[in-house]
Write a structure and sequence with these properties.
3 helices; transmembrane; UCP037672; elongated; transmembrane helix; membrane; 78% helix; DUF3784 domain-containing protein; mainly alpha; 73 residues
Length: 73
């Protein structure tokens, strides 16, 4: 059970980090294949912002679940 708590928190931190870098710092190269599709006009910056926001939210959810599991035991 301890391993599950550690994994949840680490995955949450990874998602938060990538979500922050994509959404706030506009590091769109972290999205697989985005640069090429952006240049060809298939993807927009709005798409990249949505991907970053979703990753940020998923990371927050994972962190909260990990903390809740630690508190509840």
């Amino acid at each position: 059970m301890t391993l599950l708590k550690i994994i949840l928190i680490l995955v949450g931190l990874a998602f938060i980090t990538f979500g922050y870098l994509i959404y706030f710092k506009e590091k769109y190269n972290l999205i697989n294949g985005f640069e090429g599709e952006f240049k060809s006009g298939r993807k927009t910056e709005v798409y990249a912002k949505k991907v970053g926001l979703v990753e940020l939210i998923i990371g927050i959810i994972f962190i909260l679940i990990g903390i809740i599991v630690i508190i509840i035991k």
